[in-house]
Amino acid sequence: MNLYCVRFKKEFHNWTSGNNDIDKFIQQMQLHAKKYNEIIEWIPFNKFTNIEYLSRGGFGVVYKATWTDGYIYGFNSHKNAWKRSSQMNVCLKRLYNSNDINKDFLEEVKNQHKYGGDSSIAIYGITKNPQDNDYTMVMQYAKKGSLRKLLDSRYHMLNWICKIDNLRYISQGLRAIHKAKLVHKDLHSGNIVNQSYFDPYITDFGLCKPVSQDSGSKEFFGVLPYVAPELLKALFNGDNIVYTQESDIYSFGIIMSEIINGYPPYYDFPHNTDLALKILEGQRPEIKCEVPQLLLDLMNRCLDDKPKNRPYAKELVDRLKQYQYDITNEKTELYKQIKAIKTEKFPAPLIYKIHEQASYKSQNLSKTLKNFQGY
């Protein structure tokens, strides 16, 4: 890769993002890349075709597009040119008000790109649409969309093997993040995307806040149903919000309930101060189906009020790996528990009505919950 770093350096004068911090960020990523999947590029917007709107989040808009060049996977010394994959579908995440993009935000992007592991979505580069002037992340496209979308449309097709597979792969992504001494901060079913029915990827860690907000800000962003109670308590008491690996594990527990149950957490509640208080008082998402006790116990440990009682990501991976084996072994307790569950028929797709004051987009909870102080 050292020879290719020299090549990258020679090309620095051929492009600019128009933002000095972004230019330096991309250059440093290229100079320090040890593998091809660690390369980030500045990609001219005219390299994208067939741009199609997908969804809108709290701080950006997501599109599907065709990248005509594809990513770098080598160098052809005879042609003196990069080897690239053929044209491919990618996800474009346009970031609102990103002219004020800052170094803290770019550091979070680097963390996802470099330390996310095989269970995190790949980042290929950064681009900018000249029509709206917002910077846009170029990321791996997941054919099945978000985990939430998959559950809405295909929950009735997911048996216990598929559910445990999804949970295991998500836990592996979380373990990679935590092993690098990082925290996701905004783990929810909208930030997990699927290539297939049992191939989930974690995305958007650190991307849940405005790109201009620095790490010292006291504003608190997230999706309320997934926020750990200790963070809500700190918010209500006016204390500093400190995201921890334990708070990520709580969010995983909520996702676990969602995969088991099919329904979004607290979909029939207004997502306001009243719900936050109920969470602080111990309320957790309702489970509307029979569940093997072993899985229920693991989920409840993740959702424990006390952060120190929650399992580490490594334990989640180890247990779920074991459950993948146990589920087909008739001598195991998990196999017996699943066999004892009556087969249930679920509507296809799931039928439910989200409360008009419920929101599953990342938002400024400091403002949403501002009417309550002290707990």
Automatic annotation (TrEMBL):
One Pfam family matching this protein: PK_Tyr_Ser-Thr
GO molecular function, one term: ATP binding
Protein kinase domain boundaries: 48-326
Keywords for the protein's UniProt record, in alphabetical order: Kinase, Transferase
PROSITE patterns: PROTEIN_KINASE_DOM
Name the record gives this protein: Kinase-like domain-containing protein
